[in-house]
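BACKBONE STRUCTURE TOKENS:
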Amino acid sequence: MYRATPQQHKQGQEQGRERAHGRILSRRATLTLLAAVPLAIAWELADKGRSSDTSDTATASSGADNAVAIMEFSNDGQRKGVVMVSKVAKTDDQWRKLLTPEQYEVTRQKGTEAPYTNKYAENHDKGLYRCICCATALFSSDTKFESGTGWPSFYQPIAKQNVRTETDRSLFMTRTEVLCTRCDAHLGHVFDDGPKPTGLRYCMNSAALNFIPAPATSRTS
């Protein structure tokens, strides 16, 4: 029967301790690694959250300067000066709730109402025409004229700042669309066959307008 020498026995004990120590270190390394995984995941999620917050903040900041200059008017047509105002932006559902079906179709979907039967085609009262969507002053009765088209027509807006134009190539033709500066409501189109002094005809939809009669003192003056 083989018997280990004292020296071999001592070496075997030392090797056993080393193997045991190695197993302990291995278990410790594994546990340390496992413990670090949730921390790494949490850090990554937090970092993504910070990136998302930064992105959201940048997006919000980009919309913060969404302002336009318009000329303000009192209901009796008096200029109150140019002011900076925020653009009016609403969701499609919000516009539907605020407007009648015809107003929504015209202003938000660029529709056109029927001629001759609309609200202001034959309106000859003195007053102010405001945007039906945001109440921006758009036209004055002082520049309204009979165009024979069946739609209310004006030879100029009440202030150049309050309307803007875009090229409209719908219906296989090229026209100049007129929109409200503040809320981008479609108002109608402008043509170059109007009377003096501008030679322009702003052919508007009644559904895009809200007429504010002039005070009695203004109508009789």
Notes: Residues 20-26, 29-34, 36-64 have pLDDT under 50 and may be disordered. The chain has four helices and eleven strands. The longest strand covers residues 79-86. The helical segments are 6-64, 92-98, 101-107, 216-220.
